Amino acid sequence: MLGLLLVVAATVVVAWGVLGLASSSVDVIGALTVFAGSAVTLGFFLAPIVTAISDPLDPRRFRVFALPSRPLAATLVLASLLSLPLFALIVLVVCAGIVWAEAGVSILALVTAGVLGVLTCVLLARLAHGLAAMMFRERRSRELSGLLLVLIVVVVVPVGVFLASLDWNGAVPGALAEAVGVISFTPLGAAWAFPALLAAGEGTAWLALAVSIVTVAALGYAWLALVHRQLTTIDRPLTTRERGGLGWFSVVPGTPAGAVAARSLVYWGRDRRYLVNLLVIPFAALVTMVPLLVAGVPLNVAVLVPVLFAALFFGWLPHNDLAYDSTAIWMHVASGLRGLPDRVGRLVPIVLIAVPVLAIAVPVSVALHGRWAIAPAIVGACLSLFLSGLGLSSISSVAAPYPVTSPGESPFQQPQRTGSSGAVPQAVVMIGALVLSAPPLWWTWLSLTSSVDAAELAFWSGLGMGVFILFVGVMTGSAVFNRRSRRIMEFAAAT
C-alpha cells in the first residue's frame, strides 16, 4: 500500500510539473521532456534487474499450455500495460502531449510518439525481466540487489545535482543542450524527441522517428526470440531455489579474495566498531570547514574541503583492519591463504561504501562552489587521497597492527597500550597520503585560483598517482603478510 501511495504521489507531482511547462519556450520543453523521457525509459530496463521482483508474466509459466510464441509474446506485452508503472507513464505521456499540442504539434505526431515511447518502455521491461531470469538466480539475494541499486545511485545522483545546479535564465544551458542533442537520436530518447524536433521545425525530426521505429522493431524481435527460447528450452525449473542464508558469500566470486571480501562485508555491516568509524567521517569532514571560515576563507572554497577530507579518511580507515579480526585471523593463516587475496578482499567493503558517498558528495560540493569546470580537479584530488590511503593502509594494517577493542565490546573503550605504537601507523598513513597527493592537490589549488586548465592535469595526475600507490601498497602488503604470518598470529593471540 505504501508503494502504491508513493507511486501515485510521484505521478501527481511530476504530472503537475509537466503541465507547468506550457508557458516555457519550445527549447526548454524539449530539453526537459527528452532528458526525463530517456531517464524513465532507462529506468524501465533497470528496475526489474535491481528490484529482483518475481515476474508474474514470465513466459516459462505458460509452458504447460503449449501456446505459440508470437501470440503469447504479443499478449504478454499487452498485459504489461495494465501495471501501475505503465499507468503512471501513460498519464505523464498524456500530460506531455497536452503541452506539445499547445506548442502546435499535431495530434497524429503526438499519438505516434506516445505509442512508440510506451512500447519502448514495455519491451525494455519485458526483456529486462527475461534476461534477469536467465542470468541471475531465481531468488536473487538482497545483497546483489543492493549492489545494483548503489550503481544506479552513483550515476543518477550526480546527474540530478548537475541539472539542478544549472543556470537556466529562460534558456537551455549549453551543456544540457549538447547532451539532449545526442540523446535525441538514441533508442532511449528518439520517441520523446520527435515532437520536440517537430515543434522546433527541425528536419531531423523524421530521423528521430525512424530511429524510434527501428528500436521498437528490434526490441520486439528480441522479445519474440526470448519468449521462443524460454518456451522451448528447459535450462532450469522455474521453482528451483538456491540455498539460503549465504548472504554475501552467494554474491562474491568463489575465490580466496571473494571469501575474504564476503567475510569483511559481514563485519562492516554488523560490527559496531566499524560502524562507529564510518559515522565519524561525515562529522569530522564537516568540522574542517569551521576553522577555514573563521580564518576568512570564502564559503565557495570552504565547501570543497570536506569532500577532500572524507576521501582521505576513507582511505585511512582500513589502516588497522587486520586487528579487528582478533583471533579469527587464524583462518587465513591456517588455510595457507596468500597475502594478495587477503589484501584485496579487505579493501572491498570500504570501496563499496566510499565510492557512492564520494559520488554524491563531489557533485554536491562542486554545485555549491558554482563552477563545474573544476569538477575534474576535485575528482582527481579525491582519487589520489582515497587510493593512496588504501595503498598505505594495505601495508600498515599488516606491518604495524596495534590493539583495538575486542569484538562485542564498546567501540569507545580503548585497550591499554604502551608507547605510541598506535599513533605512529595512523600518522604515517594519513600524512603519507597527503604528501603523495601533493601534486594533484597543488594543481587543484591552481584550478581554483588561477587557471582552470589545471583541472584536467589534476584529474589525470590524481588518477595515476592513486592507482600507482594502491598497486604498490597492495603488492607490498601482500609480501609482508606472507613473511609475517607467524607474527600476525602471535599478535592476534596476545590481544
TrEMBL record:
Keywords for the protein's UniProt record, in alphabetical order: Membrane, Transmembrane, Transmembrane helix
Segments crossing the lipid bilayer: 30-53, 74-101, 107-125, 146-166, 172-194, 206-226, 246-267, 274-293, 299-317, 347-368, 374-402, 423-445, 457-481
Superkingdom classification of source: Bacteria
Protein's recorded name: ABC-2 type transport system permease protein
Organism: Microbacterium sediminicola
